[in-house]
Amino acid sequence: MSAAKRFRFLAIVLLAFAVGGILGAFYLVPTHADDDSGNDDNPNPPVRLTIRNGVPTLTLTSEEQENAGIIAARLEPAPPQIDIHGFATVLDPAGLADLNNQYRDAEAQVDVAKARLAASEGAYQRAQILHKDQQNISTAQLQSAKSTYDVDTNTLTAAQTHAAAVVINVRQTWGGAIATALARGDSAIADLIERHAFLVRVTLPPGTIITTPPAIASALYGPADVRLTYVSLATAVDPKLQGMSYLYRTPAQNLLPGLTLDVALAVKPEQAGSIVPDSAVVWLEGKPWIYIRTQPTIFIRKQIDPTRAAPRNGYVVSGLAPDARVVIRGTQMLLSEEFRASVPVED
After folding, report:
1. Is residue 183 within 8 Å of residue 167, measured between CB atoms?
2. Rg from Cα positions in the chain
3. How far apart are CA 170 and CA 183, in angstroms?
C-alpha cells in the first residue's frame, strides 16, 4: 500500500472515532425533561400582598382564614354618652381666703378715698365760688383746696388700681368665675373660705380634651357619692398628671384639702363612632392599626385615632362604614403575613 493510501485510511479511521465520540456523548448525558415537567406539580406560591392606591392589600383564601383563626365582624356603635374618668384634687382655700382679705382691705380703702374726695371736691368748688365772688378767700386758700382735691383724686385712683390688681391676681390663680364672685361679694366665696364647700381640680388623662365640660360630674369618697358642679377652666394643670384641668365645686361632705378622688364625667361625643376592641388593634411604629375585610378574601390595613377611649376597653373610632367588617381576632397574624409576603423570595 502506497503512503498516500495509508494516510487516507488513517484519516478515515480518526474521523470515525471522532463522530462516534460525539454521538456517544450526546446519548450518554442524562436529560432533565422529567424534572422540568415535575415543576408543573409545584407552582410558585400565589401573590398575597399587593398595593392598591397606596394601600397594602392582603389576599387570603377562606381556608387560610379558617386555619389562621381570623374572624371579622361588624362593630358595635359607640353609646350616645360616655364616661371619661379623671383625677380630682381637693384644693386648699387658704390662698383664696388671703386674696379675699386683700380685696376687702382694698375695697375699704376705695370707700375711704371716695369719701375724702367727695369732701375735698365740695370744698374746692366752694373755694372757687368764694374766690371768684370779690375774692372772699385768698388765692392761697383756693390753691390749698385744689391741692387737697388733687391728692384725694390720686388716692382714689391708687386704691381702685390696687383693688383691680387683687382681682387680676384672683383671676390668674383661681379663674374668671371665682374672681367675679369675689369682686361682687358672692356668698359662695364665704362658703369656700369657711370650708362649707371646696373647689376641686379635675384633671383628665393626657391627650384627652373636652370641648364642653359637663355641668355635673360625680366622684366617690368612701361609700359616699360626691356631686361636683362645674365652675370654670382651671388656670393651671397638675404638674404630675399633665392633662387638661377644670375647676368644680362640691359640698364639704367631710372632705379635706389634698384628698384625691376618681371622677367620672359623662360626655356626649362630638362625633358618632364605632367601638374597636383591643383585640382588633395592632401597633406598628407607635401607631395603632386595624384590618378591614373589604371582600371575602381581601384585607386592608387602616390607621385609627387612639385619643377616644371606649367605656370598657378599646377605642371609639369615627369614619368607619356601619357595615364595615373589622378583624377582631387574628390581627397580629395578618400583620406578620403582610411582612412575610413583602420579603422578596430568593431564587
Report:
1. yes
2. 45
3. 10
Gap between the Cα atoms of 165 and 174, Å rounded: 14
Beta bridge partners, 226, equal: 219
Nearest partner of 333 among 57, 71, 68, judged by Cα: 68
Q: Kindly report, residue by residue over 51-68, the tens digit of the pLDDT.
A: 777 777 889 999 989 998
Extended beta strands in 234-286, E state: 245-251, 260-267, 274-276, 282-284
φ, ψ of residue 161 in degrees (nearest 5) = -65, -40
CA 344 from chain centre, in angstroms, equals 39
Domain positions in the chain are: 49-79+272-341, 85-92+194-267, 94-184
Q: Is residue 60 within 8 Å of residue 70, measured between CB atoms?
A: yes
- 49-79+272-341 in CATH: which number? 2.40.420.20
Residue linked to cell 364642653: 212
Query: What pLDDT is recorded for position 343?
Result: 67
Q: What are phi and psi of 207, to 5 degrees?
A: 90, -10
How far apart, in whole angstroms, are the C-alpha atoms of residue 168 and residue 129? 42
Percent of the chain with pLDDT over 90: 47
- The helix or strand, by DSSP H or E, that contains position 100, with its residue range, turns out to be helix 94-132
Binning the chain into helix, strand and coil, the percentages to the nearest 5 are 40, 25, 30
Is residue 16 over pLDDT 80?
no
pLDDT for 77 equals: 87
Could you give the CA distance from residue 33 to residue 14 in angstroms, rounded to a whole number?
A: 33
CATH number of 85-92+194-267: 2.40.30
Angstrom distance (rounded) from CA 288 to CA 332: 12
Contact (Cβ atoms closer than 8 angstroms) between residue 69 and residue 229: no
Confidence check: pLDDT of 81 > 50: yes
